[in-house]
Amino acid sequence: MRHLLAIDDLSRDDLEEILDLTSSMVEVSGRSIPKVPALRGRTVVSLFYEDSTRTRLSFDSAAKRLSADTMSFAVSSSSISKGESIRDTVETIEAMGMDAIVVRHGYSGVPAQIARWTQASVVNAGDGWHQHPTQALLDSYTIRDHLGDLEGRRIAIVGDVVHSRVARSNIEAFNRLGASVVLVAPPTLLPSALSSWPVEVTEDFDSVIPELDVCYLLRIQRERASEALVPSLREYTARFGLTAARARRLHSKALIMHPGPMNRGVEIAGDVAEQDNAVVAEQVANGVAVRMAVLFLLLGPGRAGAASQSVFEPVGIEEI
């Protein structure tokens, strides 16, 4: 694996290898000194053209826990404000000796284009409405950690699917790992052409709730939508929000998930977000471990099964 651009570039074996390696990274993250020398001497740069909290910090933490050097590119204070092109920016970064570039951009396809311009490994941290592969990996890991595996699981993705790169990546990952996916949304929040998508579709949230193993909620992405997509947020909550009453109808082991940021009181009730089966904080924590696994597979000394165990030995306090 040289780049991670989209989930559809990965086979089921690839997905399971990343998830298996993530378990090792979870163990590393749980140590008193959560750091190993696996990527010492490597440099990872974050190139984020969109605002981000969870993803940017998660990749930065992941690289540092593997002992890689990190650089963060601030678009607002860069030469982009003077008209520098993406290609020139990438070539400047590469001239500094970068090993991996983590890219987030508002337009679909930009990370794939960057991969054609550079010898560094490229990780897609979200591009337009297209893909967010590491989010799908961390979500798959979280489900597997709680439920054992995804084979035969029933997962509802509820909300603004049309603008969601998370939904697109998750649909591919969940199906590849054996789950069935149902999209729950009004027609205005669904893509116009769904015939080729391996999903079921319904507007009746209440009808599917009792059969779900995972209820995955999406927020309405007002920053990507220029039109009014629902009559009102109150009506949207009444039909598609996970209220306390709906949450009580989920079976006892069903997971409640959300990629964040949450709009409490819209797609999820505030008290529901605090329930024991709401694993949003775990998704964030697992995101660091998943991104450690991805960076290790891209930049480490061989694939997971062939890697020397020494790269996972603890780093001494004097080495930090």
Question: What is the CATH domain class of the largest domain?
Answer: Alpha Beta
CATH architecture of the largest domain: 3-Layer(aba) Sandwich
Strand content is 5-15%
How many DSSP H or I helices? Answer: 10
Q: Major sheet: size, sense and barrel closure?
A: 5 strands, parallel
Order of helices and strands: HEHEHEHEHEHEEHEHHEH
User: Quick one: CATH superfamily of the largest domain?
Assistant: Aspartate/ornithine carbamoyltransferase
Q: Output the structural class.
A: alpha/beta
What's the helical proportion of residues?
Answer: 25-40%
Taking all residues together, what is the mean pLDDT? 91
Tell me the number of strands: 9
Number of domains: 2
CATH topology tier name of the largest domain: Rossmann fold
Overall shape: it is: globular
- In quaternary terms, these chains amount to single chain
Strand sequence of the main sheet, in spatial order?
7-6-5-8-9
Alpha-carbon Rg, integer: 20 Å
Low-confidence stretches: 304-308
Distance between the termini: 29 Å
